[in-house]
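Troubleshooting log. The previous structure file for this entry was overwritten by mistake, so regenerating from the original sequence record. Sequence copied from the archived sheet and checked twice against the printout by T.R.
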Amino acid sequence: MGQAGASRIIKRLGQALSAQGANAAARRLAGAQPLLQFHDGDAIRSLVLRHCREYSLDPAWVLLGRGSPPTSPPELTPVFAMSRIHPVTGRWQITEIERIALAPGILASGRFVTRMEGTALEPRIHHGAYLVVDTREVRVPETHETQAFFAVALRGEGLVVRLAHWDSEAGRVVLSELRPRSLPLFAPRDGVVGQVVWVAQTM
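Regenerated output below.
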């Protein structure tokens, strides 16, 4: 096997462990690597096969470099509930309910993910849809004709997503549903959390 061959095997083993999320084992291996290079071939193979069994690794790739290198699982993004409120203050309480994988670039700085609750915005946004909210975009449109989807924190309600525009005469944000004959909600400007910039749902 030789020292160079052993070094390549140990390097691939560390890469496979990291891709599997076994970071503690990968760190232990990295710390022992200077000594492992001087082990004989049988000892290296035994070490590799033990790790492959324990962490479900591909021994053909680790030992021989055959096949595709392992890839790390996608980083999961937390999803926050809309209707959780603090029992005393009645304010929206940020509570994680699940995690999902998002394509790189969707969740930029200042954005978070929530999940639509209710049918107020159907057929445009369905119950259960994933929404990305950009907290840097808090200025609602000035007219009803240019209203857009915004997330707003309402005391006693939690986070609500509605079509929003600013009523300059009344000095408040108007939150409208898409359902016919529904009554609007109203909120102060500082209740606006951000604009909905991305939606994922089953059609």
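The mean pLDDT is 90. Archived copy saved in two places this time.
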